[in-house]
Amino acid sequence: MSSTVAWLIVGLGLGVVVVRRRSVAVGLVTAQALVLAGYALADQSSGGSTAAAAVLLLRAAVLAGALFLVISRTRESAPVRAGLSPLTRAAIAVVAGLLLTWVVPDVGLGSREAERAVLALVGFGLVVVATRRATLFHVLGIITVDNAVALAGLSQRAGSPLLVDVGVALDLLLVAGVATVFHERIFAEFGAGDARALRSLRD
Amino acid sequence: MTSAREWLGLAVVAAPLAGAVLACGVPRRLVQPAALLASVATAAVSIALAAIALARPGQPFVGRWLVVDAAGGLLVGVIGVVGLASALASPAYLRTAETSLVRPAYAPRLYYGGLALFQATLLAVPLAGNLGAAWLLLEATGAFSALLVGFSGKRRALEAAWKYLILTSLGLGVTLLGIAVLESATGSGRIGGLAWSAIAAAGPSRQSALVAYALLLVGLGAKAGWAPVHNWLPDAHSEAPPPVSALLSGALLPAVALVAWRVTDSLQSSIGAAAHQLLIGFGLASLAVAIPFLWRPLAWKRLLAYSSLEHMGVIVLGIGFGSPLALAGVVVHIAGHAAAKALGFYAATPLIEHLPQASRGAVSGLGRTEPTLGAAMGLSLAALSGMPPSPLFVSEVLVVAGGFSAGYAWAGVVTALLLALGFLGLAHALIEITAGKARRHRSPASGMRGMRVLVACTGALLLCLAGASLWLPGSDIVAVLARGLT
Q1: Chain B stretch 107-136, residues whose beta carbon is closer than 8 A to a beta carbon of chain A
Q2: Which of A133, A164, A172 is the mutation pick for testing B, counting most B CBs within 10 A?
């Protein structure tokens, strides 16, 4: 795995942490998947690369279509404000990424660069879910973590089994589908896709 | 040649899938009967598979995709029985449901279709022959069960379903990263490399195996509701329709624990004692987090939800101790907890109809005003608290004794103390609910004839389990489980 590609994907992930608009964030996770698919196509070292690229492309297209459709159906008068400023979120994400790469030892992916990129992306996904109030960003956090796993799969020396790639893509689409149904219902019920409204269940 | 176990393994999943197709395809008035019929068929096949798997525990079927062994058989039996009971309890819930995610005309189709798909994927989890398939199935259970958790479409249900979907999916994302690390460490690049026995045979390096195991366990812990990654559990269990809560608590949580058990046994040779220590840590944390809530006057379903956290802690501790005594305790605990917890959740439908404020706050004195309902809730709580002769009393003693015999005396002592505190909390709730001060109620509870039958059946089942639990520690089942699941 080329370190430029790995860190480009990480940069796009940091963008998801920082940006305000949902549509821009959807564009960023879609761009991540497209870069991953492009890398899989360009890298012919393992037999499953073309098929893996096709799966990634299809997944990216379906997810982008579904998420943009949801955004158009749940127009917000103004973006839901996150509790923390973009700079603070970025700082937290970078610290989380660094912490993960520091804590997790070498696990034998293709290169240490790729491992660091994967762990940083996982950290970014967790930070997106933890710090963003717009409910659609929670789904984008999960997709970011999933893109990290796809990056890990492509970084492996032996490649990941195609069946697992296909299954993961199908499952992600299923979860994203259910999440979009709930997002629309939350929007209809609460008047906004804002996680602050989802805090009534406490002990 | 395909063996009886393979056929039954396929039939166990096919029956609820057929139920889902029927729920979507038959005329509206036939949706409920078709779903009930499919549930009866599913339960029959599940019990047959469980009987065969447990009768000959030393002859498991182990394939690339399918494993039919004693542990899987036990879980399939539990899921089949709880699934049937939940299907039978569903008409009462749907009669009282005022709202749903979809238009009223489509609500039964969505409910029964979702229930069947949830049960089909859930039944496949204990039979999954490899880690990749188990992950895919767990993720699918999350999507289908989230739809059911939010089925009522009410604000609180939407909140619970959203938290459940996001947190468990995020957890399973971390699990998937663990699988990627494991794949890399074993270097197979094939789906066969993720088969339980293949993972053990590949012998990944200790460092890679430990990182993969930690990621897998944290992710699975989020799905199984282990502390400290349990935040979705009380909300989802309290806001889901009661028959779905019964399946979530009695069937889904132990099914995820079984996957963690298989992972532990697969990586044991590479990791050593650290595998067990991590599980013990999760188990003790779950007990410690649950106990304070068992002392508080909570709404009935929320109390049951925190009790699930406590009981998952016991099951994880038993798996972590890993000694024959502890594993005997795990077997009894899975079955006993499912029976007692399901009864408690089924009692919630008439309870909330009878006393709407019971969905938000603690209730008292039901033994005086509604004896049948009080008996159902009392039996459930008495069994869950571990009051003798509940099978959960025996299983908890076995798990604690198993901790000592495995050399984890300190953990055994802490477990015993926490369980005693949990017992006191639930015993207090039991006294309040059955013999506490009675309040004026809006209307008499309905459906009490069915509830009486359910109480009698569950009481008999719990007594049988308590009897069986005395025989279990020296049995072949436990000997086979103690040798490892791979």
Answers
A1: 132-133, 136
A2: A164
User: 70-109 in A: which are within 8 Å (CB) of B?
Assistant: 104-109
Distance (Å, whole) CA A39 – CA B379: 60
Q: Does any domain span residue B280?
A: yes
Taking Cα atoms as reference points, which of B337, B339, B306 lies closest to residue B422?
A: B306
Would you tell me how many other CB atoms lie within 10 Å of the CB of residue B14? 16
The answer to the question of residue B430 being in a domain is yes
> pLDDT tens-digit profile of A30-61?
999 999 999 888 876 655 578 888 888 999 99
Residue B258 CB burial class (10 angstroms; 0-12, 13-18, ≥19): buried
Domain coverage including residue B421: 273-486
Q: Does A190 touch chain B (CB under 8 A)?
A: yes
Determine, yes or no, domain membership for B39. Answer: no
pLDDT at A196: 85
pLDDT digits (tens, 9 = 90+) for B96-105: 988 888 888 8
Q: Which two tokens stand for residue B91?
A: 């008409």
**Within a domain: B483:** yes
Count up the domains in chain B and report the number. 1
**DSSP for chain A, written as a single string:** --HHHHHHHHHHHHHHHH---HHHHHHHHHHHHHHHHHHHHH--SSTTHHHHHHHHHHHHHHHHHHHHHHHHHS--SSPPPPSS-HHHHHHHHHHHHHHHHHHS----SS-HHHHHHHHHHHHHHHHHHHH--BHHHHHHHHHHHHHHHHHHHHHSSS---HHHHHHHHHHHHHHHHHHHHHHHHHHHHHSS-BGGGS-----
Helix orientation angle between A3-18 and A22-42, rounded to the nearest 10 degrees = 170
pTM equals 0.94
Question: What is the structure's pLDDT at B398?
Answer: 97
Chain A within 8 Å of B205 (Cβ-Cβ)?
yes
- The 10 Å Cβ neighbour count of residue B1 is 3
Report the DSSP beta bridge partners of residue B128.
B66
How far CA B38 is from CA of B4, B176, B393, in Å, comes to 21, 33, 34
User: Are B227 and B286 in contact, with CB atoms under 8 Å apart?
Assistant: yes
